[in-house]
Write a structure and sequence with these properties.
Keywords: Hydrolase. The chain is an alpha/beta fold. It has helices at residues 16-28, 52-55, 62-74, 121-124, 152-160, 177-191, 240-248, and strands at residues 2-7, 9-10, 35-37, 77-86, 92-99, 105-110, 132-135, 140-143, 165-169, 194-198, 201-204, 207-208, 214-216, 222-225, 231-236. α5 links the parallel β8 (140-143) and β9. The mean pLDDT is 96.
Length: 264
């Protein structure tokens, strides 16, 4: 299976419509991939809190339309990162969209853990409450977003729901880049799953971004890692290694806390 992570540079001087067109062109260029992944809140910048309300859109808004068409034209599964979604009651959410190769919306995930410590996203946006998985022909995706990466219980829930490949779009700051790579590898090891973590480049509202999108295998080995600037990180991986790893080292069977089944 081939995955391409597009580490978009967010330039605050670039109009949002122009960025949508530019990113759609990048998606179309990945027509040889099976899965394409974009970062979190790439239309606005994850730290551009003051822009969330102005750039919020309905689920089937302009980003939906452009990305659905790009997925169809490229013939790929497209995790289109996340957008600031405004629902029918006016509540904002940090919502991820995944499209099928036909351009249909296959899944949507509202970010559960909001960052900000009673500021920023944590007060401006509502929280999702449902873990989301999506079955692809060769693997089952588990969806998470940025700050979610710090909460292993979400990833356990995704694995319990069948996830084999954990996809994490993010707008992660440079000053905590060491945590980004550490946590991506930790989630891969403890859940014996692939982790595809796609970050942004550039600067969001004065906050330099970490970049360094990363693909980690079920043993915690880094298969590929991007640099600091905008780039496309493409990697081939074998989804069957998840089952093999879990059979060779069946640690998940020894879980006790949080399980309904009795101890052995």
């Amino acid at each position: 299976m081939r995955a391409s992570l597009i580490q978009i540079a967010v330039d605050e001087d670039e109009p949002v419509d122009a960025r949508r067109r530019r990113v759609a062109a990048l998606v179309r260029e990945q027509s040889g991939s099976d899965l394409v992944v974009l970062p979190e809140l790439w239309t606005t910048g994850a730290f551009a809190f003051e822009r969330f309300a102005d750039h919020a859109e309905p689920l089937q808004g302009p980003t939906y339309e452009v990305m659905a068409k790009a997925a169809s034209e490229a013939g790929v599964w497209l995790h289109a990162g996340s957008i600031p979604e405004r629902d029918g009651q006016g509540t904002l959410y940090n919502t991820s969209l995944v499209f099928s190769p036909d351009g249909d919306l296959a899944a949507a995930y509202r970010k559960i853990h909001r960052f900000g410590f009673d500021k920023g996203e944590a007060v401006l946006m509502g929280a999702g409450d449902t873990p989301v998985t999506l079955a692809l022909p060769d693997t089952t995706l588990g969806l998470a977003t940025c700050y979610d990466l710090r909460f292993p219980e979400l990833f356990r829930a995704l694995v319990d729901a069948g996830a084999q490949t954990l996809v994490v779009p993010a707008g992660w700051p440079e000053r905590r880049r060491a945590h980004w790579t550490l946590l991506a590898r930790a989630r891969a090891v403890e859940d014996q799953a692939f982790v595809l973590a796609c970050g942004t480049a550039g600067t969001h509202a004065g906050v330099p971004q970490a970049g360094h999108s990363i693909v980690v295998d079920p043993w915690g080995e880094v298969l590929a890692e991007a640099g600091h600037d905008e780039e496309v990180l493409t990697v081939d991986f074998d989804p069957g290694r998840v089952a093999t790893t879990r059979e060779q080292f069946p640690a998940l069977k020894d879980r006790v806390l949080g399980l309904d089944r009795p101890r052995r």
